[in-house]
Amino acid sequence: MSTVVEKPKSIPEHCPGTQSDNAGRASACAGCPNQQICSTGPKTPDAGIQLVKDRLEQVRYKILILSGKGGVGKSTVTALLTRTLASQDPERNVAVLDIDICGPSQPRVLGVLDEQVHQSGSGWSPVYVEDNLSVMSIGFLLSSPDDAVIWRGPKKNGMIRQFLSEVDWGKLDYLLMDTPPGRSHWSHYCDNTTSRALLDVRKEIDFCKKVKVDVLGVIENMSVFACPCCQRLSEIFPATTGGAKQMCKELDVPFLGSLPLDPRIARCCDEGKDFVTALPNTPAVKALNDIVTKLVETCERKLNK
């Protein structure tokens, strides 16, 4: 006996997906015309999830960079971590996946804005920044960097799934993913396949704990201002409540470190230059090296448990 279920007419942007256990019950489902259909319809396995797992099987560590809102430097932090991971060990294969669909910035930040991706029988080939550093972004698929990508719901989620399942990364040590603000865009296809590094957002930590994924640590971005002339550090926004370090203590998550705001680093990122070799003795690069060392130690410790 088979059951016929009416096809949903429209899907909200933050839809958890019809295969989710929360289909029709999540807060995003309130007011949706398909709420009852989703909550009562049969759940069938999503073939896309298995495709993602198969493709990422050769990736040792998969790390999402998250924030609960935009404008906190998530894309810059992703590029900083990726560059530093690759520069610390030439034998370490590192890649970044830019799944911030509506605001892809990794091609510019990593200095490969004019490159193009190629497709073969094994999938899309990422663009190589260095011998051990590659990147994939929707920015490579646009005719112009100024083109706006106005995608919502299923189309945006479908593009993310395609990136996760069709890019031929080869064998990787680290894959860092630059995500859009919010959570529903990635949780369906990355559930139980990744660990996460987070910026200073309590809701994101709470969300990761609820869906039972690892929190590798918190990075406090733009914590102080580093003068480009004298390199003196100035506290612009005093941490009256203890800052990220106190928050990590309260929530029992690792604190990886603080990154100062340095205009020279920002300029390098805008121009696509390698800040690690251009500014090796700056406070920001020194802090980055410490953060990445802790991140690598945390990843290896979790793998060996």
TrEMBL record:
Gene3D superfamilies: P-loop containing nucleotide triphosphate hydrolases. Residues 1-12 have a biased composition (Basic and acidic residues). [4Fe-4S] cluster 1 binds at C15, C29, C32, C38. Transmembrane segments: none annotated. ATP binds at G68, K69, G70, G71, V72, G73, K74, S75. Its main location: cytoplasm. Residues 1-24 are annotated as: Disordered. The keyword Cell membrane does not apply. Keywords: 4Fe-4S, ATP-binding, Cytoplasm, Iron, Iron-sulfur, Metal-binding, Nucleotide-binding. Binds 4 [4Fe-4S] clusters per heterotetramer. Contains two stable clusters in the N-termini of NUBP1 and two labile, bridging clusters between subunits of the NUBP1-NUBP2 heterotetramer. It comes from the Eukaryota. Its cofactor is [4Fe-4S] cluster. [4Fe-4S] cluster 2 binds at C227, C230. Pfam families: ParA. Coiled coil: none annotated. The keyword Iron-sulfur applies. It is found in: Cytoplasm. PANTHER family: CYTOSOLIC FE-S CLUSTER ASSEMBLY FACTOR NUBP1 (PTHR23264:SF35), NUCLEOTIDE-BINDING PROTEIN NBP35 YEAST -RELATED (PTHR23264). Belongs to the Mrp/NBP35 ATP-binding proteins family. NUBP1/NBP35 subfamily. Component of the cytosolic iron-sulfur (Fe/S) protein assembly (CIA) machinery. Required for maturation of extramitochondrial Fe-S proteins. The NUBP1-NUBP2 heterotetramer forms a Fe-S scaffold complex, mediating the de novo assembly of an Fe-S cluster and its transfer to target apoproteins. Heterotetramer of 2 NUBP1 and 2 NUBP2 chains. This is Cytosolic Fe-S cluster assembly factor NUBP1 homolog. It comes from Molorchus minor.
